[in-house]
Amino acid sequence: MTSIELLLQRQSTPLLTKPAPNPHDLDKILAAGMRVPDHACLQPWHFTVITGDGLQRFSDLLVHSSDSASANLTRIAKKPFRAPMIIVVSTEFVQHEKVPTQEQLISVGCCAHAMQMASVALGYGAMWRTGGLAYNTKIKQGLAIKEHDEIVGFLYIGTPCKEQELKTTKSFEKKVSYWE
């Protein structure tokens, strides 16, 4: 697959299983996150890699941090086990007179995207998820994310359970204007 094919065929892989990326591939995935556009080279991000027993610890954190009714707790407890690896991508905002937090947030979003694309390029599947749990203060505290920082997403990575049909490409015509 060429680089342009990788980008033009990007889609999430929701059904993931073992194996997770090996340490060598994980290093490449994390290195891809480090190559994103980053005004003033602030590196306003942090990656928390969750695997093995950490998935159960993360499940416990989600359950104990949830305000959901007990019927939803079983569903919430299962979320970390949708893949053998989760990378929590979060901000580490840096005070800078020329680089506002909004611009730093965009860079961190680029990290998540680059790591998802690197995962696919290495033969894994990946899915970037957020939802209400990404905005939960107790979960941020449990992951040692400072109050003023944000969880940009949970990047689930593993081996695809089955071949996915390529989704239809969305048209860009109504989303573009030209100044000539």
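[next item in queue]
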Amino acid sequence: MNITIIDGQGGQLGAQLTKEVLLRFPDINLTVIGTNTIATSAMLKAGAKNAATGENPIVVACRKSDVIIGPVGIVIADSLHGEITEKMAVAVGKSDAVRILIPMNKCDNLIAGITHTNTKKLIDDTIDKLKNILDSNCC
């Protein structure tokens, strides 16, 4: 199973996700992709082994991924302060992968019905969803 984490800005969400995914699923095939080098670097420091930066790696990974994880902005062109290109958003949106989108109320994209939940709770829920996906494909 190919898991891809996509993040931008400073990569802190992606770094936290990377740590948790590797801790809980150490044998997983994980690729991390930053929209910029700072985000990629943060995810590498968190323990990722396979990493890339930029638009084309996101497009390619979306064709090969079984699960894509990232902030909801990865499916909205021009989000993350303009870091998500239209091509990136379309690639994530059209991917056959299961998408676990984390509802971050930032960068002019507000999600109704989402209260101020701390990032730790969002990451825990993301890991639980990933576990359910992995468990359903393993049995």
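[queue empty]
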